[in-house]
């Protein structure tokens, strides 16, 4: 079934049927002040941490409740409804609604009973409060009286677990006050650290643009003995002006509208964690409510559409375009900014940045905003320990040069991370390379950055130490040891087990370093010899003719051998053999073919096959998951991006695009009940063929899938491959396409690219026409580009 569509002009996903198989969410603000909102206005808000800074209550895994509710009541008939379909949930034959999820704003437009309402939710640029603008329009030809109620269910305590389970304490530390236009919630009111009597933990819920007609700060009064579909206060037509003292706080404010025929009026509810003085200041800012809101919304749109502007594609496949131009790109920015902070499936589990996740996330925005990417990259380099490894968890409060590491008990205690991972710092190589290639800023390699615990070194030195870390942690075959995990969190191989995936990453890193250290012949010689040796081991010990094995256990037993009963073929060693350029062309063909035959399903490639059930070893933690799920032979979506890229690199456009389509959210737009989560964002995994729910996806929004699939599409399918010297354009596309166009800004220069595929090839273009001059396909040095370029790529 289909529940909505992509409006690419507005860069919105529009939900036309609100009864979706799961809450379909959008992200507002940033973790400084973060808000998640669904098409039924469900979701929560927090300050800095979804777990420790929660200000709106939300019950996970339930009914997408509570939310940012706005109720409308016809004062003549007493009939009432909500500005979002739920919570009141009027019959959909009578209640028409569209949710416009946009770039950092969501607007729910609904029509019922001759009244059109528009509830717009956003967090203004750089602000730490949120706005719910409500416009109400009388579509009938008679005057109408409408009462409007805004309801925010405030937590009793910032720690959401305390709010939910330790009520013997939390219900008795909170009270509410009314201040003309807003409710103020106090928590531990007299335990104030500030001289002005404030605690820094107050929250306000205010109304701008209309006078408050009635209010309550008590959930028990607003709801009475009812649920959200029939709050007592709305049934009564007003709140009773009561306040909370112990029990459950809330912000509920009501105002009255008299609307002539065709008339429209608006007001705004405001919410934030602010003391009484700051709340008043914010309320003042919205004195001219309609104008302020319009200005703030335009600022958001201008900013976000600007961030997405560096690449625009127009291909024969509008869903591919919608993903690359808008939704995958916006999701990449969201993972870049939010990391894994909060969603509707987890919040605040990690009080910091995962090393590999963050360094991967940076890649997702590289083609759009490389300088923003660089800031985070520099930060992550400063979270590398002096011996080269990445800190498994980089605290939000990271203080470079002064951090403890997994070698210190205190770090282990604080973060729960006992030791290093084999791959973390190796993700720096492609990410640094992509930054330098996108910008041409080779000088970045000489920038000095502190290490996490001690020492300072140039970026080049940081990378050298990353290689050194791998080289001083080799296993018995001379391949990188798997340590606490390689990319796969469920594969614990220790210091004696070894990972082919990491070996390919290291091989790739060694080759990138050769380019970065051109002026150090001795070091280049070392890199060369090391790479050659590693490649020999990979070929002699890990290649089985049609596939690479996954690695070795600490016992020396092979993991992922072609005749194993379980976990015989793994995807990542095949795709990474190609991405790392370790595989010969023949090997590449063979291993990609094996991946296709043994792992592909209608919904993407499974991570390995068959799942672990009986044959696992101690370090194979994925056995905990049901077969066909997550790392246990699920379709791990992040790895689809690498499969797409690998196929594209060898010129298999048909297969690259097939893999894109199989797992792309947008492909399920018309079959959304199968995939369940939003058809506009990637999830972490899709259930594989061993599950009775094959094709169902999970863990929406904050996942490494966003960046790897983006890279697979941009560098792979579209073939936009910047190098340190210039750019190569080598599309790998469905052979049936006649061609397509792209607008790309590269190092400040405009590239208007037309790909001509009248030859109906699937990869490896034959020539370019650059500004009217024909030339062979391949690298275009930056020096040959003008400010504005017309490039025809002939396939
Ligand atoms: C999760 C983790 C990521 C890991 C992946 C595979 O997505 O966030 O770090 O690489 O699982 O285990």
Q: Biggest sheet, open or closed, and with what strands and sense? A: 10 strands, antiparallel
Oligomeric grouping of the chains: single chain
Q: Which residue ranges are poorly predicted, with pLDDT under 50 across at least 5 consecutive positions?
A: none
Q: Main sheet: which strands, in order across?
A: 1-2-8-9-10-11-18-15-14-13
Bin the strand percentage: 25-35%
Overall structural class, as computed from helix and strand content, comes to alpha+beta
What is the number of E strands?
42
Radius of gyration: 28 Å
Whole-Å distance between the termini?
A: 38 Å
Approximate shape:
globular
- Helical proportion, percent range: 25-40%
Average pLDDT, all residues: 97
Give the number of helices: 20
The ligands bound in this entry are: alpha-D-glucopyranose
């Amino acid at each position: 079934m289909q529940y909505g569509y992509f409006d690419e002009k507005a860069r919105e996903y529009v939900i036309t049927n609100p009864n979706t198989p799961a809450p379909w969410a959008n992200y507002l603000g940033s973790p400084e002040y973060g808000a998640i909102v669904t098409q039924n206005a469900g979701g929560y808000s927090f300050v800095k941490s979804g777990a420790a800074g929660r200000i709106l209550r939300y019950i996970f895994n339930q009914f997408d409740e509570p939310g940012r509710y706005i109720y409308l009541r016809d004062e003549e008939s007493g009939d009432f409804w909500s500005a979002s379909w739920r919570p009141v949930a009027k019959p959909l034959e009578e209640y028409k609604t569209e949710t416009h999820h946009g770039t950092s704003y969501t607007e729910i437009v609904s029509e019922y009973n001759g009244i059109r309402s528009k509830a717009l939710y956003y967090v203004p640029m750089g602000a730490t409060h949120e706005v719910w603008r409500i416009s109400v329009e009388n579509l009938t030809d008679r005057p109408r009286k409408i009462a409007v109620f805004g309801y925010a269910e405030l937590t009793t305590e910032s720690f959401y677990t305390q709010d939910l389970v330790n009520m013997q304490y939390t219900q008795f530390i909170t009270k509410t006050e009314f201040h003309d236009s807003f409710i103020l919630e106090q928590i531990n009111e007299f335990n104030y650290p500030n001289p002005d009597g404030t605690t820094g933990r107050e929250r306000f819920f205010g109304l701008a643009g209309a006078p408050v007609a009635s209010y309550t700060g008590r959930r028990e009064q607003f709801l009475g003995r009812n649920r959200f579909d029939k709050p007592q206060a709305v049934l009564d037509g007003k709140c009773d002006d009561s306040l909370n003292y112990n029990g459950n706080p809330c912000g509920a404010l009501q105002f009255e509208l008299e609307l002539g025929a065709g008339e429209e009026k608006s007001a705004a509810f405001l919410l934030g964690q602010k003391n009484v003085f700051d709340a008043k200041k914010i309320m003042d800012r919205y004195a001219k409510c309609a104008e302020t809101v319009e200005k703030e919304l335009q600022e958001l749109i201008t900013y976000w559409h600007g961030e997405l502007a560096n690449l625009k594609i127009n291909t024969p496949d509008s869903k591919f375009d919608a993903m690359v131009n808008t939704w995958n790109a916006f999701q990449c920015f969201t993972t870049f900014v939010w990391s894994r902070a909060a969603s509707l499936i987890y919040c605040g589990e990690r009080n910091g940045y995962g090393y590999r996740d963050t360094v991967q996330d940076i890649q997702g925005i590289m083609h759009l905003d490389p300088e923003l990417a660089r800031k985070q990259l520099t930060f992550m380099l400063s979270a590398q320990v002096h011996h080269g490894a990445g800190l498994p968890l980089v605290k939000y409060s990271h203080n470079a040069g002064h951090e403890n590491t997994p070698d210190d008990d205190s770090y282990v205690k604080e973060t729960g991370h006992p030791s290093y991972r084999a791959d973390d710092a190796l993700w720096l190589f492609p990410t640094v390379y992509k930054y330098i290639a996108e910008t041409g800023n080779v000088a970045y390699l000489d920038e000095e950055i502190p290490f996490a615990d001690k020492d300072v070194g140039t970026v080049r030195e940081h990378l050298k130490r990353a290689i050194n870390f791998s080289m001083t942690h080799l296993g018995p075959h001379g391949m990188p040891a798997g340590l606490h995990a390689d990319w796969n969190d469920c594969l614990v191989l220790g210091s004696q087990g070894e990972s082919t995936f990491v070996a390919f990453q290291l091989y790739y890193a060694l080759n990138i370093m050769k380019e970065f250290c051109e002026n150090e012949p001795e070091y280049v010689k070392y890199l060369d010899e090391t790479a050659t040796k590693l490649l020999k081991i990979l070929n002699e010990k890990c290649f089985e003719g049609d596939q690479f094995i996954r690695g070795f256990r600490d016992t020396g037993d092979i993991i992922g051998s072609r005749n194993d009963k379980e976990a015989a073929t793994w995807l990542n060693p095949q795709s990474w053999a190609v991405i790392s350029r370790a595989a010969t062309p023949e090997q590449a063909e063979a291993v990609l073919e094996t991946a296709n035959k043994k792992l592909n399903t209608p919904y993407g490639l499974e991570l390995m096959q068959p799942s672990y059930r009986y044959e696992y070893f101690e370090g194979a933690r994925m056995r905990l998951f049901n077969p066909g799920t997550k790392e246990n032979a699920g379709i791990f979506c992040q790895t689809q991006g690498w499969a797409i890229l690998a196929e594209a690199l060898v010129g298999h456009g048909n297969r690259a695009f097939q893999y894109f389509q199989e797992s792309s959210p947008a492909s399920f737009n018309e079959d959304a009940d199968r995939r369940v989560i939003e058809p506009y964002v990637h999830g972490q995994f899709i259930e594989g063929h061993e599950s009775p729910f094959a094709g169902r996806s999970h863990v929406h929004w904050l996942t490494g899938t966003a960046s790897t699939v983006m890279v697979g599409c941009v560098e792979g399918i579209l073939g936009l491959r910047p190098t340190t010297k210039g750019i190569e354009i080598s599309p790998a596309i469905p052979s049936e396409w006649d061609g397509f166009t792209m607008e790309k800004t590269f190092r400040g220069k405009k590239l208007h690219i037309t790909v001509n595929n009248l030859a109906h090839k699937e990869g490896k273009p034959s020539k370019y026409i650059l500004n009217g001059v024909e030339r062979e396909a391949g690298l275009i040095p930056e020096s040959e580009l003008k400010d504005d370029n017309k490039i025809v790529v002939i396939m």
